[in-house]
Amino acid sequence: MIALIVFNLLAGVASPAQQSPHEGHSNAGPVPLEILQRPVTLRTGIGELHEKVSTHSPEAQSFYDQGLAYVHSYVWIEAARSFHQALRLDPNLAMAYLGLTDAFIGLQDVATARATLESAKALEKGMSERERVWLSIREGELQFAEDTASPDGYTAYRKAINEALKANPNDPWLWIQRGLADEGNPFSHGQTGGPDALAFYRTALALAPGNLAAHHYCAHAYENMGRSKDALEESALYARMAPVIPHAHHMHGHALMRTGRTEEAIAEFLRTKELEENYYRSEKIPARYDWHHAHNLTLLAMSYQSLGQMKSSEALFHEAFSSPGYTDFLEYNRKCWPEFLLSRQRYQEALLAARELAQSA
User: Fold this and answer.
1) In the chain, is it the N or the C terminus that has fewer CB atoms within a 10 Å radius of its CB?
2) CA-CA distance, 338 to 214, in Å (whole number)?
3) How many CB atoms lie within 10 A of CB 184?
4) What is the model's pLDDT at position 355?
5) Cα–chain-centroid distance for residue 116?
């Protein structure tokens, strides 16, 4: 009887696809602005990306490029810090404000994303024609994020990209953005792409071989399409290109899991965990503010569980469950802990965990 109650409680926790991306969440943002505005230095090992922007400061350009690399690896906190650092060096760098808009959409902090977009609009006179196109695209994306239920917003967002591609078909960043838009969700950011998105990313790579963002998103698309060998190759390349990015190793772990190479997957998830925990210590940032940490712990726990290493699995599932689920994706993944308890026939504990989950959903 207890098991049935637990199943019913867990069934009431909607999957991310069933919920509005902001349902039940505050617009105050999951990460304090004090952290997001902290000064930062230039880093190595995060992968190299470059997009020429209107600035007279080479250092501001470098920090903008660093923010770009972090955005396309889902390191939202460091992306925001890098864009803020670029603005300290050049307060008129409108593209850095648009970079912040992208990072805050990633953090699902739509209100702050709107504020940074308005700051970019205030600097529109100093933007190049290409940058004004990106202002239009990012505004369309943000309007879609503000009301994901509106088909008009999504249509306008895609139209802005398509019009830009007609005028500039050789711009790889436009093709990458078109692939992201194909997902139909402004918050998935390359994680749910399929065949159409893949075609856009491959076009970007034809125009800009070695583009880190395109390789990353190709890995996700291949995984979603069940093309495990291709996903394995792309994720391995991504990890080599960005060796200190936790998600790069985590993504390779994904691909290894799907090909049955569980021990190797565990090594990648452990490397991810090590990189994250070193980062939290060195930057004095609590793990609870990093959306990626709990997700990695969950997949590491699943890997140990599949090998019958239940003690290790239990500790990791419980740690992930104890992390705040400030996005629907994270909240949904917290189901893994009561499900694990059910599988171990620990029904009373499973019931308590399921009730806690249902109350927080």
Assistant:
1) N
2) 37
3) 13
4) 86
5) 19
